[in-house]
Amino acid sequence: MKRIASALAGAGLALAVATSAVSQVSTTPISATPGVTGIVVWEVTTNTFDHPFAVPSAELDPITSLPLDSNNNDIAGHTGGGGNEYYDVFLSDITGAHDPNGPCVRINGRYGGNSSGFNIARIDLMNGSSVMRSFDRLIDYNTAQLGAQSGSQHFIVDPDPGIQPSTYAAFGSGSLDLYAVICLSTPPITLTKTLTSPVPILAPTNVTFELAPVLTNTALFEGRTLAVTDTLPAGLTYTSATGTDWACSASGQVVTCIYTVPTGGGAVTQVPPVTLTAQVDAAMASGDYSNCAVLSDPESAPTDPAAIWLPLELATAPACADMPVRHLVDRYHYAVKYVCGAQDNDAEPEAATTLAQGRYFTEINILNPGYLAADLEKRVYPLTLDTTDVYREPAQTPATGGEDMTLNPGHATFDDCLKLGEMLGADDLAEKRASIGWLSITSPHPLDVTAVYTGRDIDRDNATSIDVEQVSGRVVQIAQ
Q1: What domains are defined for the chain?
Q2: Would the pLDDT of 305 be above 50?
Q3: Contact (Cβ atoms closer than 8 angstroms) between residue 245 and residue 224
Q4: Sequence-ordered strand ranges (E) for 93-177
Q5: Nearest C-alpha neighbor of 60 from the set 131, 123, 115
Q6: What is the pTM of this model?
Q7: Using CB atoms within 10 A of its CB, is residue 149 exposed (0-12), middle (13-18) or buried (19+)?
Q8: β-bridge partners, 179
């Protein structure tokens, strides 16, 4: 555990520290922190004294009847050498104003005589008897004297790499009253996880993830270790996990990687990522999986009350990456051209000229001649829609509509311009300006597919033409 022990150089430096600290202060109320049961203020002057406060408690309200004295205080501090020290501890906002739902602690003090000053070694946030973390941000104070009698410890107030690798201050000595506002820093570490392999994942194959911890300030954790644990879903087999200065190992489905934050790194926020590779087993069922990783803090709170305890403030939620696993399967595929609607070049010369003038209709007949039900996937690829959005090469379009259905053995169905419009979320395509495109049909079994095309003159008075086309299917591989 690293102990930070450099000194503030003067009042100007202290103001700079305070400005930087405010921008990194947690806004979570101390009373609302999950698991918190109390606060302990540690004083070390030759001997070690701990002063516990329950959260919530009336003791953490401010004392209003001043001055502080031997009968009017939350803490009676060190009294050696004829000195007297009396302190009031209460919850506050970042300005030091009393706030029972505040994220900070304010300490008011009064001392005199030969007192050497109240030397705070640490202020801890507690869960029962366990230290959750230490307060690490000095936001405001009215006096800070550097130096204290031999054997005393100082509270580490702001390890700010923008000023120094670390800074501290002791509350001064003499007959002056003092105050200090101390807060918690913002959660300084998060974890992101990204699937870097192309999707969908076609089993069997390798799949690769990147795990990237991000610290808001590595100087807070110089020399500390952090752990990333990834529990692989059943069907994945660990292959490797590598990253600069990471030590990774696997036990069954659990992959653990350990990293030590280097010293002297300043405000570097990006820890080197871990690249995790696993084998997707051939027997892994198709489906949408989620692979998650969590951060953990392998260190325990130090027993030395002079050592600020800065746990890694882990993100509460795991970092997850979606992993769609599919298998290549053979399917019968039918691609059917459709033409629907009116092409009136005389009345609408601005409309895209993709067809000869006329009114067009398409009917697509589908028969399942076999003895097994066929689960059909129908997808519509509109190349024009109402003569707009013309996908002429090099422009391309994906499927923008469709439906799935089961065609029973020995049964038939058909799709026409009305149904195609429904699949596209539009009205009857036959009643619109001309639309052309493809209807794609895939089936696990052979089908009989016939397209019937009807056309007539735009004024609907002249003869109607009709064309029937048998659509041949072919075997393709799809991811499913």
Answers
A1: 11-183 (no CATH), 189-326 (2.60.40.740), 329-479 (2.60.290.11)
A2: yes
A3: no
A4: 104-112, 120-127, 130-134, 137-141, 155-156, 168-169
A5: 123
A6: 0.57
A7: middle
A8: 108
